[in-house]
Amino acid sequence: MLRSWAFVLLAVLLMLPLEGCWSRKELNELGIVVGLGIDKDKDGYEVTVQIVNPGQVSTRNGIRPEATPVSSFSETGETVPEAIRRMTTLVSKKLYFSHLRIVIFGEALAREGIAKPLDYISRDRQMRNDFYLVVAKGSKASDILKISSPIDPIPANNLNVKLANSDKLWAATGQITLDRLMMDLQSPGKDPTLTGILIAGNKRGGETPSQRIEPRAALKYSGMAVFRQDRMVGWLDENGTKSLNYLQGRVHQTLATAKCPQGGTLSANIMNVKTRIRVGKSGDEPVINAHLRIEVDLADAECKIDLSKNESLTWIRKQLEKKTLSVLEEGLEQAQHQFHADIYGFGRYVHRQQVGIWRKVDDWDEQFSRMKVRIYPDIHFRRIGTIQQPIEQVRRE
Question: Which CATH number fits domain 239-397: 3.30.300.210, 3.40.50.720, 3.40.50.300, 3.20.20.70?
Answer without folding.
Answer: 3.30.300.210
